[in-house]
Design a protein that fits this description.
The chain is mostly helical. It has five helices and no strands.
Length: 127
């Protein structure tokens, strides 16, 4: 190999290296753009979830609470969201051997004879 061929090969390798460095920089920039878009999307989704939680619970969250919600990972936020929602009232189970007619003294509306007597007394003006 003569000197000119060697110099041409060096220039070719240098150009190839510069191209590889540029491609790596472009890939890093594209990854950063994608990462930023993902972060924006996640932040928007989390804000929507926080707004829904506020609407569902009738609460107004402070800036500190919103910041804390945004800092949580998905599992932590799911637990916080679950714990913030009100518990639905459940009618107590009747004891074994006691049916609805016995528990309500046969009244369909579920009121007892005592409640009916109190209401009757109120209607007559008694205290």
């Amino acid at each position: 190999m003569d000197l000119q061929e060697a110099q041409a090969k060096i220039k070719e390798l240098e150009a190839s290296e510069a191209k590889a460095v540029q491609e790596a920089a472009d890939a890093k920039a594209a990854a950063l753009v994608a990462q930023n878009k993902l972060a924006e999307s996640q932040a928007s989704t989390r804000q929507a979830a926080i707004d829904k939680l506020a609407a569902d619970t009738g609460r107004e969250f402070t800036d500190e609470q919103v910041t804390a919600f945004k800092a949580m990972d998905d599992a932590q936020f799911a637990v916080a969201e679950f714990m913030a929602k009100p518990v639905e009232a459940k009618a107590p189970e009747l004891p074994d051997g006691l049916d609805k007619a016995q528990a309500t003294n046969g009244r369909e509306g579920g009121e007892s004879k005592i409640l009916a007597a109190v209401e009757a007394a109120k209607a007559q003006g008694a205290k």
